[in-house]
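Subject: mismatched residue count in predicted assembly?

I count 320 residues in my input, but I want to confirm that the predicted structure covers every chain. Input:
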Amino acid sequence: MQIEGERFLVTGGAGFLGRHLVPALQRRGASVVVLDRDADRLKTVGASSSGAPVTTVRADLRSDGLGPALRGCSAVFHLAANPDVRQGEQRTREVFEDNVLATARLLDAIQDAGITRFAFPSTSTVYGEATIVPTPEDYSPLAPTSVYGSTKVAGEGLIHGFASRHPLTAIILRLANVVGGGATHGVVYDLVRKLSDDARELEILGRDPGTRKSYVHVDDVVEGWMHAWSSVKEGVETFNVGSEDAITVRELADQVCTAVGAHNVTYRWTGGVDGGGWKGDVKTMALAIDRLKARGWRPRHGSAQSVLLAAKSLASGGAK
Ligand SMILES: NC(=O)c1ccc[n+]([C@@H]2O[C@H](COP(=O)([O-])OP(=O)(O)OC[C@H]3O[C@@H](n4cnc5c(N)ncnc54)[C@H](O)[C@@H]3O)[C@@H](O)[C@H]2O)c1
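Triage response: the counts match. Full output below for your records.
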């Protein structure tokens, strides 16, 4: 699928991932409409480094008419979601509406608008506690251990179902934990925030040394996304996007402390739930990324380096 000359609607484009993807599209010669329901975030969606203006639309995918935002667009990147796995456990209905109802409404609207190209960020949590790690895309059964993960399985299912009755070419990207500047949530974000409040003692959810997971830098995700998009010609294809290793939460915390210049920090582990940081937390996660590597993409950073770069950027308030 092409990028240059296309007009993309990026839902949730004022969020963390969107702020990195939108300039990447513009640099490749696309024009972009950002749809988001968060008025404050939308205000700060500015011109990209290429100077091309971004059109912004404030709308809620759960309830608003989507026809006007889609007018003139030729493709959709559907990023809008409630992405916080931990909070999702307490807010089932909200997460269902943001992640499933919104996706179904959007798919109906793109059919009405005659749009046939679509991208959807799914998640490593669709695999649940997989017995094969690194986990390949054709692993089954998809048995997520969180409400968030189950809503992403539902989103993937909707895309496949929709594609069987409407000509749709789509990529589904199952992302590892994405880290980078401008993050709005997640463990690196949490630890940087806690250390800025108290650089002597750090509360960490779970039991030492914590879960072991793959972290991928947002720049690698953007490159992987562009590779996947450009390489798919028809049908619905699924790609894992992650780094090639995994680290424990203790190793992650060490990187965050180094990044913010905090020394001799005492870690205070909360004990966690069922071996994870919280109920529904996956304990071991790494993704087999051979499918996307075969299309010419390679992550430039490992997990520890990704976390280090992200924490430095978050601590300095940067967006990179
Ligand atoms: N960040 C990660 O580690 C990660 C990992 C796997 C998958 N993903 C997926 O990538 C996508 C982007 O994640 P992110 O980290 O940028 O999240 P984010 O919260 O920073 O951005 C999401 C944006 O979507 C908007 N939004 C949510 N519901 C909406 C609705 N109903 N209508 C309009 N706007 C709505 C929010 O206002 C927000 O600006 C999500 O689908 C998420 O599930 C993220």
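DSSP finds eleven helices and 14 strands in the chain. Marking this ticket as 'not a bug'.
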